[in-house]
Amino acid sequence: MEVKVLDINGVETGRTVTLPESLFGIEPNDHAIYLAVKQYRANQRQGTHATKERSMLSGSTRKLIRQKGSGGARRGDINSPLLRGGATVFGPQPRSYRQKLNKKVKNLARASALSYKAKNQEVIVVEDFSFESPKTKRFVGILKALKVDAARTLMVLNNADNFVYLSARNIPNVSLMNVKLLNTYKVLESKYMVITESALGEMVNVLNA
Fold first, then answer.
1. For the stretch 78-107, what's the b/e string if a residue is b when 16 or more beta carbons lie within 10 angstroms of its beta carbon?
2. Alpha-carbon gap, residue 33 to 30, rounded angstroms
3. Helices (H), 60-102
4. Which domain of life is it from (predicted)?
């Protein structure tokens, strides 16, 4: 599939680039996408939730009521789970939610997500650009020129440009990502993908490796 290359003013440069079939032209695998998204979301969880069990509470160990004859449930000390302020039974404890996924499945899922974007004509290729200083207003102008300012947009860059990053940092619904960090979740999360020319060329080397 061929895509026209635009400049930062949204004007066609007269050049075209070919989206690699191995990344943008495969038959999408929905189950691979599901597994990759599930793994990404699970790996984002901190797993720091915790509740206190009886051994973690400080309090008198004196038995509050007699074992039998009260007509109520038997309970021991003031740390009993039956009482207000008592311990928690089988409550959550800190744990890791990380999941593993085979590399081939992750690559398949990422290529499937990119193929969906190409199929829906939601991939925009722009020529490389850089800023001399952080300027959010200028970056917003680029988004408006590309007609992607009203939707969630993922911009893929080849090299880290600190001034471009600072210019886009406070803009809602805009994410900047290095081509080496591209993942299935970020591709699906965005409506449009804006890819620089050099990043597209690097995609073939990095993502197909």
1. bbbeeeeebbeeeeeeeeeeeeebeeebbb
2. 5
3. none
4. Bacteria
Is the sign of the CA dihedral 189, 124, 165, 111 positive or negative?
positive
Dump pLDDT digits (tens) for 99-123. 999 999 999 999 999 999 999 999 9
The tokens for 152 are 């969630």
Q: Which residues have a Cβ under 8 Å from the Cβ of 193 and sit 6 or more positions away?
A: 114, 117, 122, 123, 124, 153, 154, 155, 156, 187
Cβ 109 vs Cβ 178: under 8 Å: no
If you average pLDDT over residues 90-102, what whole number do you get?
95
- State the residue for tokens 């929905």: 30
CA distance 188 to 113: 6
β-bridge mates for residue 196, sequence order:
126
